Amino acid sequence: MKPQLTLPLLKKSARDFVRDLGKRDIADLYGITDGKAVGTHVEHQFFKYLTARFAYQVGSSASGIDFPDLTVDLKVTSIRQPQSSCPYKSASQKVYGLGYHLLVFVYEKHDNSRKKTARLNFRHGLFIDLRHTADYQTTRGLLEILDREGNQDDVAAYLEERNLPLDDIGRTRLAQQILSERPAQGYLTVSNALQWRLQYGRAVEIAAKGGNEGIENLLAT
Questions:
Q1: CA of residue 177 relative to chain centroid, distance
Q2: What is the pLDDT of residues 186-203, one digit of tens each?
Q3: Which residue ranges form the domains of the chain, and what is each CATH number?
Q4: Which of 141, 112, 136, 139 is nearest to 199 (CA)?
C-alpha cells in the first residue's frame, strides 16, 4: 500500500524529481519553443513520478488546483519569463493571496542539435506559502498605510488607485476587512485580466538569496 502524500513528501519529491529530470535527454522536447508544451510535459512526468510512489487526491476542473488535499497548485515556467496564469475568483486575492500554495518549477531549456534532444536545467524549485501569494506592491502599500494609522478612506482610495476590479461597495467592504484583518506581504506580481497573470521574478530573486518566511527554495537543500 502506497504512503499518503504529505506536504513534506511533496516538497522532497519535487526536489528529487527536478534533479533527476534535469539529467535526462528528452527527444520529445527538441525544437519545442512553446512554453505551454514544455510545462505540460514536465507536469505529466511529475504526476507519473508521484503516482508510482504515493496515494494522493488528483486535481480536477472542479477543484481548480493540482493537489486539492494539500492545497497546492503546480506551475512550470521558463527562467526567461517566469510567469503563468490562474483563474480569477475575487479582487481580494490580490490582497490576501490565491488561497493555496504554489509549487513552481523554473527551467532553462537547451537543445542539442547533434543528439536531437533537449535538456531542462531547473534553475529554481519554489514553494510559495499561500499566505504570501498576493501582489507585492499592493500589499506593501497597504501595510505602509496601516503602519501610518490610515483609515478606511485611505485604504479605499489606495485600492482604487491600484485599479483593483471592484465597485464602490466592494472597495468599501474590502477596506473594512483590511483594517480588521491585516494582510501578509505578498511576493508575486499579480496583473488584472480575465485571469490573473502571475509573475514570479521577485520570488525567484528571493529564492536565489536563500528564501524567506513565505518562499522556500527547494533546491537549496
A1: 24
A2: 999 999 876 889 999 999
A3: 7-88+98-133+193-220 (3.40.210), 137-180 (no CATH)
A4: 136
Provide the terminal-to-terminal Cα distance of the chain, rounded to the nearest Å: 29
Express each pLDDT in 139-164 by its tens digit: 999 999 999 999 999 999 999 999 89
Residue 199 makes CB contacts below 8 A (sequence gap 6+) with 82, 83, 188, 189, 190, 191
Q: Which of 37, 71, 81, 42 is nearest to 204 (CA)?
A: 81
The gap from C-alpha 218 to its chain's centroid, in whole angstroms, comes to: 14
Long-range CB contacts (< 8 A, 24+ apart) of 84-87?
Answer: 84/39, 84/197, 84/198, 84/200, 85/193, 85/195, 85/196, 85/197, 85/198, 86/195, 86/196, 86/198, 87/195, 87/196
Where is 173: in which H helix or E strand? helix 168-180
Distance CA 40, CA 71 (A): 20
Q: What is the mean pLDDT of residues 104-119?
A: 96
Quote the cell numbers at residue 194.
480575465
Q: Which residue has the cell 474590502?
A: 174
- Euclidean distance between CA atoms 128 and 103, whole angstroms: 7
Query: C-alpha grid cell for residue 104?
Result: 513552481
